[in-house]
Amino acid sequence: MEKSINLAPPATQGMGALKKLLRMRETGLILIILALCIGMSFASPYFLTWVNIRAMVMAFAVEGIVVVGMTILLISGGIDLSVGSVTALAMVIAGWLFLQGIDPWVASLISIAACTGIGAFMGFFVTRVGLHHFIVSLAVMVIARGACLLFTGGRPIGLFTLPAEFKFIGQGAIGPIPLVIIIFLIVVLAFDFMLRRTTAFRKVFYTGSNEKAAAYSGIRTKKVIFLTTTLCSALCGVAGIIYMARFGSAQPTFGLGMELNVIAAAVIGGASLNGGSGTIFGAILGAVLLSVVSSSLALLDVSVYWQDIIRGSILLAAVSIDHYLNKRRR
Amino acid sequence: MEKSINLAPPATQGMGALKKLLRMRETGLILIILALCIGMSFASPYFLTWVNIRAMVMAFAVEGIVVVGMTILLISGGIDLSVGSVTALAMVIAGWLFLQGIDPWVASLISIAACTGIGAFMGFFVTRVGLHHFIVSLAVMVIARGACLLFTGGRPIGLFTLPAEFKFIGQGAIGPIPLVIIIFLIVVLAFDFMLRRTTAFRKVFYTGSNEKAAAYSGIRTKKVIFLTTTLCSALCGVAGIIYMARFGSAQPTFGLGMELNVIAAAVIGGASLNGGSGTIFGAILGAVLLSVVSSSLALLDVSVYWQDIIRGSILLAAVSIDHYLNKRRR
Amino acid sequence: MQDDVILNISDLHKSFGAVRALRGVNFELRRGEIHALAGENGAGKSTLMNIIDGILQPDSGTICWNGTPVSIASPTEAQKLGIGLVHQEIALCPDVSVAENIFMSATNISRRLLMDYRALEDRARSILGQLADIDSAMLVRDLPISHQQLVEIAKALTLDCKVLILDEPTAALTEREAQILFSIMRRLADQGISIIYISHRMVEIFDNCDRVTVFRDGQYITTQTVADIAPSDVVNAMVGRVVDTLYPDKMRPQDCASDRTPPILDVRNLSEAQRFRDISFQLKRGEVLGLAGLIGAGRSEIVKGICQLEGDVSGDISLNGTPLSIRTYGDSIRAGMVYLSEDRKGDGVFLDMSIAENISALDLGLVGNRVGTIDAARETDLAETLAAKLNIKYGRLSDPVSSLSGGNQQKVAIAKMLSVDPKLIFLDEPTRGVDVGAKAEIHRILRDLARSGVGIVVISSELPELIGVCDRVLVVREGQISGEVSGEDMTEENIMHLASVLDAADAQLQSA
Amino acid sequence: TPVQAESGLRCEPGETYIMNVMVSGHPYWVPVYQGFKQAAEAFGCETIFSGTPDYDITKQIASFEQDMVKQPAGILVHPMQSDPFIEPINRAIENGTEIVTFAADSPKSNRTAYITSDNLAEAKFAADEIVKQIGESGQYAVLENPGQSNHDLRVTALIDYMEANYPEMKLVGRQATNQDSTAAYRATASILQANPDLGAIWIPEAGSAEGAVAAILEAKSDVLVMHADITPVTLEHIKAGNIHMALNPNQGMQGFMGFLATFMASHSDVFDPFNDYKVSGYNPVQIPFVDNGFAVITKANADSFDLNTYMEGRDPS
Ligand SMILES: Nc1ncnc2c1ncn2[C@@H]1O[C@H](COP(=O)(O)OP(=O)(O)OP(=O)(O)O)[C@@H](O)[C@H]1O
Ligand SMILES: Nc1ncnc2c1ncn2[C@@H]1O[C@H](COP(=O)(O)OP(=O)(O)OP(=O)(O)O)[C@@H](O)[C@H]1O
Ligand SMILES: [Mg+2]
Ligand SMILES: [Mg+2]
């Protein structure tokens, strides 16, 4: 019997690595980002300065943690519109508790726990009641924003008195690199690894790809969905605490519209809104792309009246090119 | 011999009609809205006055036209985040043209045509390039908002000089009933009828339910999706013109966040985010529910710091109850 | 003679990336004939049909319709020519009623502005009437897979076509429905309609078709009149060698366990509110047990109930003598009891995920390290071993399952079950869409497993398969076990007799 | 220095001042930036309008840090939130860029000056005007925008002032509309329903005022409308008598004084004040707070506040 059609002969190791790189889902996006950066470094002498790069990374680092949670949730087939409000609520709860005299670290833990609870609450409505993620998270988005207002009376909470070692999370640096960026990288690398390699996270893919088939493979799909929903909110909690440490304040109106940004990043990076596919690395590249475009427009002093038009067009073009490259590669 | 499965014997005609009503997807929602209204009419003597009802209907009538477009698009399997910006752009283009000295009716037609063009543009990217509705409409949302800024310099356009017969669209009334409500009802009834009964719109359901199966049956699914995408934007154009006539101005920042509201209405009304199901009637009931809740909270003068929490909770409760009622009915 | 040919295909090529699905095939279809197309899994049969229906475009080659070359760009155009296709994979709109699904094409080309639902349902009822008892107002998503298959067929019958293609329509049907289909096919052929019939069941081909064309590995092998050729010749042409299509030997005395060892599976008084009641049976060591019954009898439900996949069941189950107290299907898998689903597309495989990922889905522990990470090499090894064992035809193990032919997807689903070395396997239509050679291979594997002490329960709509493979067959009728046959009594007549509803009425009359 | 004295207070070639805002497409900034630019031209300086189009603090901070990369002489910034800007502002000052805040402050930072309109004064004026028009006992309502600090202040200050000075004035409605005219329409309609005797309504910004007026006109009610800020539409309503009065911060002065403060901070060597700046490290021209004043817009003077007319022939950026 013709030892069936294994048409791809094992190439030499080097070739293999290059081929593998070219076959990766993320390569197109990397090329597009590189092209943009090269163009920008000619257009503006400031683009490649350390300060600018730092500013660009700082602009999405904390949101990037939320992107991680959203990507995992999208892969499992869910979506979360409440990320912006929940992040704000995390700041507000921790800030409020701190002002009540609670140790900031304890306050932060309580706040993250509360956000995790919110995620579990949503997970309950999705998996037990049977509602769609979209509508549940929309309602929670409104509720959490309301809770922010209620805690603060609508006014930002100033937290200047936060101890220095707590502020260090958000404002400190190790060598030249801000701690925020280091935390961000750790979260991204850890979850990227886990999502690619661990058996636990593999179940997220099975569930999102075909929930019924996953159930028929003995996977407790509801539990998986419950957990990804909870994880996403928990990461919002973490992000909120880092923001609080960074800004030294808690803002009830923080994160308005964040959900679209975060979902867009994940989708640009290849996550499917129907579940079953996506990578953390890709999603972060999506966030990088969005951030580089915004920063470039600001740096080039493009008229505000043109910025949105250009931004939207670049987004559309980038996604189209990426899509085209992916199609060709296949 | 147990002539199995046909457990429901053909009942008498009257019974049948009642059963049919009870079996309808929308019944649960109607009951919930009725319950809310009855509760409110005890809580506030003003709730059931004609003026209040009129105000409540006016508050969602124009947006209701967008809900119609969104529902049809959702049924076909798409989604549109750009509705808010496109509605604003419709106002802005028509207003700007009017200030350039063009007849307001002609300006309105041009503006609606432009919105239709935007829809076609999105349809092109979805059906030809192969991108997801979400990301395309997100980019267009940004671009259209940018175009609003560009046309107006960010400033609202005052259109007090619009001729009275044009303003009549938005401000006039036939007998006691505002023209806006009449237009809204006509659009809703027309599309509800078409969606339920015409062969052309049935294809929208087939396409959304299983695009492949529809294509195998000879339906040109890409054309269907292209058209529903275009229709949704065109209806945004219509809504924008009515808003303009009603407010006598064109606001470049109009409709921020409208997309979530509109999608929520459709989803509450039973439209599936995966395509294939939904009704105009249900979606409008969804809009009614959202509007009644908001109006009630305002009428009862609930503290603003509590309103969001209550609103989100009612939304969640209503959707859960509706889901439960539907599940039982099956 | 020549003007009798309605469709003529010559030297057609089609590749998917590196996979050459069709390599210069020829095919000739005459007016009014029933023409069988045979070939192993992945031979390219479905690909050719998709090309004829305009879903895929050939890389090169000509298609002549009534003697004139045509290019068929879309299903719409195929429809205009008069080509109708029943797909191997069910493609229906789940959110839409049965009636609307059946008349989807008609609605599409109709010039009428408004839907006439009543007429639609009436007509649907009359078409369905000849096939089965299906409520035409139901949504397709609420139908079991076998009924969906019938709706697919009904859909094709409404087409006003000159060429009707049936791609493995009987894979999920029982004998009775299949016979109804064949009589309809013959009637259509008599009206001058040409039918292309794809099946892996030789009996069906030889009983109902006029000619047969054989493909092998994307190449055209031969076309013969059925009267001039023997089934074994077709099989040999398909596989390219002589295949032993006989069923494996039955249980040997030495396979039997002594009376003292407990049965592998002991089910007592299993009931579920709506679907079945009072089911009791045993599966002895070394035996292969069959479950027979008509469509909708509840066989799948019983087995899913045992595995805790569906329903709220009551009753006692013990596995190898130990009473089971499992609450989820996950527990069932851990206890060594697995279920192969009949709906491979719906819940059998992850179409968008890779072959390797599919095969390891049941127990990731097999491919994981102690720390819970996946060892890619072990995952590949596992997949390679099982793919070779089941002779799966694939390009790369990292290709998505959706790129496989139907039969090969089925083999992936089976590989998934075998990956965990189960103690007991329930197989629901295990050889659905699998070719003769592979089928024999699967039967042999099942027998080997049974001999090594693994419990095997087979549900099949194909009676010859049940009779050939099983040592004992339980017949299910309307949620109850209506009888048991084994040994000499295991004949199609006996099984049908126990399965059919008419006798239930008789029995009731007698007992009354 | 002598050189400085010779050329007077003038910019060197390439000396640039930046005005940084959030939601940069908002028309509020347009006259502010015109004031900023006019002042800059007078001193021969270059200006850049910068910031983020989004309502997003992270993005505004990023844009502020990118401004710093360009080494401008000074930045006039509208910090979206006060505390998050402390560190960036102080870092900018360390790098030699002078910082002045306007319309919103970051008081704990080392910025040299803060230019603003006095929201308390506006609220007080509005309260007095309402009482003058409808009398000391009556019902009034407010729309608000919780979370936006200057709007918050305008509302809470008015309520407090009323309570303290006119106890007979009853607050009967208080609704959040978040600058959304449809929401304002709905809220106002409901308030009118619940309170047929409503005498006046105070709205802290113009977007909501548009919706509120539509509801009032539809209900044919004669509620007195007062609001802050203006748009062309509310201007028309003022002319038509549908809105009684609008209070508009003196945007041009805000920008003009904002530039002056920034410029002076950057050219502080012309000035050696009698204070501790040499030891404290503060800028010699430290100005705690400049009130740019507000205009009262009524039927009589509405024509002067048409931004479109004002902007004719001017470059918005
Ligand atoms: N979309 C696709 N992408 C890649 N390869 C494909 C695709 N569709 C089919 N193939 C390959 O083409 C070959 C022929 O497949 P086809 O479905 O025509 O087989 P078949 O004869 O119908 O088999 P079966 O009896 O199992 O249904 C197979 O090797 C299959 O893997
Ligand atoms: N999801 C469901 N909801 C309601 N009824 C169902 C559902 N699934 C199956 N049934 C019903 O349960 C009964 C048994 O169905 P099923 O098709 O599984 O039987 P079966 O003996 O396995 O036959 P086959 O597998 O050949 O179709 C049928 O009457 C069917 O209509
Ligand atoms: Mg096939
Ligand atoms: Mg079955």
Automatic annotation (TrEMBL), chains A, B:
Q: Which CDD domains match?
A: TM_PBP1_transp_AraH_like
Q: Which UniProt keywords apply?
A: Cell membrane, Membrane, Transmembrane, Transmembrane helix
Q: Does the keyword Transmembrane helix apply?
A: yes
List the GO cellular component terms.
plasma membrane
One Pfam annotation, family name? BPD_transp_2
Task: Answer whether the UniProt record assigns the keyword ATP-binding to this protein.
Answer: no
Its placement in the membrane is given as:
Multi-pass membrane protein
Question: Where does this one sit in the cell?
Answer: Cell membrane
Report TM segments: 28-47, 53-74, 81-99, 105-127, 134-153, 173-195, 224-247, 280-299
Query: What is the predominant subcellular site recorded for this chain?
Result: membrane
One of the record's GO molecular function terms: transmembrane transporter activity
Q: What is the name of this protein?
A: Ribose transport system permease protein RbsC
Q: Which organism is it from?
A: Phaeobacter italicus
